[in-house]
Design brief:
Shape of chain A: globular
Number of helices of chain B: 22
Strand order of the largest sheet of chain A: 1-2
Strand content of chain B: 15-25%
Number of domains of chain A: 2
Distance between the termini of chain A: 20 Å
Radius of gyration of chain A: 23 Å
CATH topology of the largest domain in chain B: Beta-lactamase
Structural class of chain A: mainly alpha
Largest sheet of chain A: 2 strands, antiparallel
Number of strands of chain A: 2
Distance between the termini of chain B: 121 Å
CATH architecture of the largest domain in chain B: 3-Layer(aba) Sandwich
Number of domains of chain B: 2
Number of helices of chain A: 16
Helix content of chain A: 55-70%
Oligomer: heterodimer
Largest sheet of chain B: 6 strands, mixed
Structural class of chain B: alpha+beta
Helix content of chain B: 25-40%
Order of helices and strands of chain A: HHHHEEHHHHHHHHHHHH
CATH class of the largest domain in chain B: Alpha Beta
């Protein structure tokens, strides 16, 4: 092997560095979140989450190195078996798991426990990449579309059955991947439109304020397309469909969502309606972040996080610690780090010659993006509270290790991209 | 084409990043309200209630003290009760009451303490204290309530109770908080700003469960409670107690003043109530029954009950007429009952001509009819109507100088001014029709439209005792250690009538007691009492018995006014009570108190 051609020279150190920074910053903030002013625990101790997170980081580093050492082709080979294994574990979970916070997602062996749903994300990414990279794959073909829907939908459904709606929602982000791989943008646009209509229906009290603009837009569209009867009929139908959806949201909201899910959405729209009840999380989270100001209260000096006003502070609401203690500037650093990572991962994906690797790369970027957007969005009151972790940052072994595996498989694939030409 | 989709996806990522940056900027940098909300979350303001000032009598005896009590506070988020019924039994409330109180507390705050049960006494506390450990979320907040050493002078002392929403609105200085106690009446209300002291505050940091986590900024903003100032009353506790004993079972009032200072020695409003009833947990129930009592124990008669003064007003008339020069001490008028009725007896038969002193002694109504006529009809104007107006207003001016017709400004709330009619008053009353002396003459003898309150009568007799001036009567002679009353009570008020004329009035009042209508019931061995009876018509009910007196004649120590409702002649109940009080005050333990059984028996017919 020529000099500069070893694996160490070929891996993308920028991604590794961004990963390392996020993990370290996460660790420091987990320590800040568990820090008790009256009874400060030593940093190196297994009695608290930060200490345990260090163990997880150690495991993650070992796994990351192993992944880079393993022949990259193994992921291609193992993608379906891995998917099948985790789908199987998701089913097992349903029978053996104890309910925690309303969800049955943990498998336990003595003191060791893990969450198969976290690992199912990259397993599904591998399977989707594998299927799309088939030589004669055509997304517009019904059979291909149906199989992709199964690969993504089966684990998502099983996770919904577990009761973990948040993690299941992550699977919806594959729509971005499919979009990149040539799927018509219409499902994406329809999905976003449906979400907007849904929120508007809950927000707009007087329905005429919705009807009138829809009617006006439809009218103008029909006017400009008056030469084509077909188009006019289509526009009319779309207008009626939109109004119909709008009007049926109330029914769907009442009947298809659980009360706590209804509350999370209502709270997002108006957190002051029930600040001590359903609105507590959002209200307290915004107070903690908002009180940080420009420069923050200083490391370990946060009051809202220290005194437990913010729930789940070392896991789902870890961003509150940064917002409160590091202020807007600190939050910006975190957001810039994530942006850099997301864009870098997208670039890595784009530079793959092998479709499998590219699809997988986009899956990684999309999944990270979804976690980032939903997690921070919920803490600052832009999304309903959906309990999913901030990648690399939140406390939790399953989350950290599965995200690490996911990212380092990509780094491994990328490091070997030149050899793939022969593939 | 698909490569460009990669840029769209990156665009979406960046868009979300920018959206977050803007949202965070507005949340963290632009919007200041979250900082306040964060402080509000963690800072618990602990109030240290100040010790309310005490009230002493003029001899240093404690009248009003503080008694410890406790508010049972609740922090709803910490509450964990296994057996609610058992808890309800323990603290003595019903289950639905419990639910309501918890609901109210939750509404206030989940994590901040609010009162659950107020004003537990030490006895209540003893019952529950040992078990309270089993009920997390319930804490005791020490406070104090008032305690009265003697069950006397309820209306003068007043009471304290929780501040009302209206009072909170009026408190522009924002001293008070909801749940604070405030003086509602009497001295407690009038001297509230001295007695209340200053609340201490401690700012503690607490976590979401309300558990304390140390001081906020190391106690930089903490303040200590400053106890209220104690005040020394002018009241003579022993005399007050004796006066209340004498008034037991009767309606009316007594005011006794030290003439040389205007200090109120005794102020009785009867019927009254035990001030201890309006303290502690039973406040509401007791207040309801006291305020609904048909005998109106909360009506502070010495200040609020406006009566017609009756014959005691003849002294005022004499002084005014002498000063105006319309009569001299030697002016004689015949007792002509065609003008106005008179209670002619053996000593004062129909047709007797009396000089001024004799007329006062015998309380001759026709005499004072004539005196008033000379005051009002001075022939300064041709029109008898206009002439009467000029004369009446002149008279009114004199009488006002004695402190009649408007509140004196005593240091108790709710004082009424009574009524001394003037020309404008009769113009209104006659609605533009003409009037002259013959229409208004009954005011000559203290009947008709005249109204005075007992404190004014006492102040008047103190003025006579001083031969022409008075200090505004007051109840507090020293605030804190100052040794001084409020400045307005050191100010001498002159009546504008020569003291020589007062000597004539004094002579007459002395004779009243020696041999006139005051007669024997106010007469004392060794003490020369000067007095005047009044028997105020109150048809169809029995007359009110009125007596004003001071003693001794020279260098007077005490001036009293006694008003006993529906007790008949002034010479009976009121005179006897006056005599007893004067003797008790001056002679203390060597007083003979001859008429005490007569007064206590309460049958004055």
């Amino acid at each position: 092997m020529r000099r500069g051609d070893g694996i160490v020279d070929r891996i993308d150190w920028l991604t590794v560095a961004l990963y390392g920074l996020l993990v370290l910053a996460g660790l420091l903030n987990i320590y800040a979140a568990i820090y008790d002013i009256d009874n400060p625990a030593p940093f190196f101790s297994l009695s608290h989450n930060a200490g345990k997170q260090m163990i997880f980081i150690g495991v993650a580093v070992v796994l990351a190195i192993s992944i880079l050492a393993v022949d990259y082709k193994v992921y291609d080979t193992l993608s379906y078996p891995l998917w099948a294994l985790f789908v199987f574990l998701l089913i097992v979970v349903l029978f053996v798991a104890r309910e925690v916070n309303g969800a049955k997602s943990w498998i336990e062996f003595g003191s060791f426990r893990f969450q198969p749903s976290e690992f199912t994300k990259f397993a599904t990414a591998l399977a989707v990449a594998k299927y799309i990279s088939r030589p004669n794959f055509k997304i517009a073909r019904l059979k291909d579309a149906a199989i992709l829907a199964l690969l993504i939908g089966v684990p998502a459904l099983l996770i919904i059955v577990q009761g973990d709606m948040g993690t299941a929602l992550v699977f919806s982000v594959f729509i971005l991947v499919l979009f990149r791989e040539g799927m018509s943008p219409i499902p994406l646009i329809l999905g976003v439109s449906a979400a907007v209509i849904f929120l508007l229906a809950l927000l707009v009290q007087n329905h005429f304020y919705f009807w009138i603009p829809v009617a006006a837009i439809s009218g103008i569209a029909i006017f400009f397309n008056r030469k084509s009867v077909k188009r006019m009929v289509l526009i009319l139908a779309a207008g009626i469909l939109v109004i119909g959806m709008f009007e049926s949201v109330g029914y769907a909201f009442e009947n298809f969502l659980k009360p706590h899910q209804q509350n999370r959405i209502l709270v997002l729209l108006n957190p002051n309606a029930d600040p001590l009840g359903a609105g507590w999380n959002v209200t307290q989270s915004k107070i903690a972040i908002g009180s940080g100001g420009l420069t923050g209260k200083g490391y370990l000096n946060g009051t809202q996080t220290k005194f437990d006003f913010v729930p789940e502070q070392s896991t789902d609401f870890i961003f509150c610690t940064i917002g409160e203690e590091q202020g807007w500037l600190g939050s910006m650093i975190l957001i810039v780090l994530f942006m850099a990572l997301l864009l870098r991962v997208t670039q890595l994906a784009e530079r793959q010659k092998w479709r499998f690797a590219r699809v997988y790369g986009y899956s990684v970027a999309s999944i990270l993006f979804f976690h980032f957007a939903i997690n921070i969005g919920m803490t600052i009151g832009l999304f309903p509270v959906i309990g999913i972790p901030l990648p690399f940052f939140s406390y939790g072994g399953s989350s950290l290790i599965s995200f690490t595996i996911m990212l380092f498989i990509l780094i491994g694939l990328d490091a070997n991209r030149m050899q793939m030409l022969a593939h | 084409m698909n490569r460009s989709r990669g840029y769209i996806i990156q665009g979406i990522f960046v868009l979300v990043g920018v959206l977050f940056a803007l949202r965070l900027f507005s949340l963290q940098v632009l919007d200041e309200s979250y900082k306040a909300a964060a402080d509000n979350n963690i800072i618990q303001e602990e109030i240290e209630y100040p010790f309310r000032g005490l009230i002493y009598d003029r001899n240093g005896k404690l009248l009003v003290a503080n008694k410890p009590m406790f508010d049972l506070m609740v922090v709803p988020s910490q509450v964990f009760i296994k057996d609610t019924l058992k808890f309800c039994d323990l603290i003595g409330i019903e289950r639905n009451e419990f639910n309501e109180k918890i609901k109210k507390a939750r509404k206030y705050s989940l994590v901040k303490a609010s009162p659950f049960l107020k004003q537990l006494s030490l006895e209540d506390l003893a019952k529950i204290e040992d078990y309270l450990d089993e009920y997390p979320g319930f804490i005791l907040q020490p406070r104090t309530t008032r305690s009265y050493t003697y069950p006397i002078m309820a209306n003068a002392l007043g009471y304290i109770s929780e501040i009302s929403p209206q009072e909170l609105d009026k408190d522009t200085a924002n001293y008070y908080h909801s749940g604070d106690y405030i003086g509602k009446s009497g001295i407690e209300s009038e001297y509230e700003i001295y007695l209340r002291g200053q609340r201490g505050k401690k700012f503690k940091i607490r976590n979401v469960r309300g558990v304390e986590k140390g001081e906020f900024k190391d106690g930089e903003f903490d303040t200590l409670a400053v106890p209220g100032l104690s005040v020394t009353s002018t009241i003579d506790r022993e005399l007050q107690q004796y006066a209340e004993k004498l008034m037991n079972g009767k309606s009316g009032s007594i005011v006794a003043i030290e003439p040389s200072t205007g200090e109120i020695l005794t102020i009785v409003s009867s019927p009254s109530y035990d001030p201890n009833l309006l303290t502690g947990q039973k406040f509401s129930a007791n207040f309801r029954s006291i305020s609904q009592d048909t005998l109106k124990p909360l009506f502070n008669r010495p200040l609020m009950a406006a009566y017609r003064p009756g014959s005691i007003f003849k002294i005022v008339q004499s002084l005014v007429a002498l000063q105006e020069g319309v009569i001299t001490p030697d002016t004689k008028f015949k007792c002509n009952t065609n003008l106005i009725g008179c209670h002619n007896g053996a000593s004062h038969p129909f047709g007797t001509s009396e000089k001024l002193v004799g007329a006062i002694k015998n309380s001759c109504n026709p005499y004072f009819y004539q005196v008033m006529r000379r005051m009002v009809v001075q022939d300064v104007d041709e029109s008898p109507y206009l002439d009467a107006k000029i004369g009446l207003d002149k008279w009114n001016g004199y009488v006002q100088k004695f402190g009649f017709g408007s509140p004196l400004g005593i240091d108790l709330p709710g004082e009424k001014g009574g009524m001394i009619p003037d020309a404008a008053y009769y113009d209104r009353a006659y609605q533009g029709r003409e009037w002259k002396f013959s229409n208004i003459y009954s005011i000559a003898i203290g009947e008709g439209e005249n109204l005075v309150v007992p404190i004014q009568m006492a102040n008047f007799v103190a003025t006579v005792a001083n031969r022409g001036y008075y200090y505004t009567p007051h109840l507090i002679k020293s605030i804190g250690d100052s040794g001084k009353p409020l400045p307005q009570y050191s100010e001498k008020h002159h009546t504008g009538v020569d003291s020589a004329y007062f000597e004539i009035a004094v002579e007459a009042m002395s004779q009243v007691v020696k041999s006139g209508t005051g007669q024997y019931r106010a007469k004392l061995q060794d003490i020369e009492v000067c007095g005047k009876t009044g028997t105020v018509q109150n048809d169809p009910n029995p007359d009110h018995s009125v007596f004003i007196a001071f003693a001794p004649r020279n260098n007077p120590k005490i001036a009293v006014s006694v008003y006993v409702e529906n007790a008949g002649q002034g010479a009976r109940a009121a005179a006897a009570i006056s005599g007893l009080l004067i003797e008790k005050y001056i002679k203390r333990d060597s007083a003979r108190l001859y008429f005490e059984p007569y007064v206590l028996k309460g049958d004055f017919e």
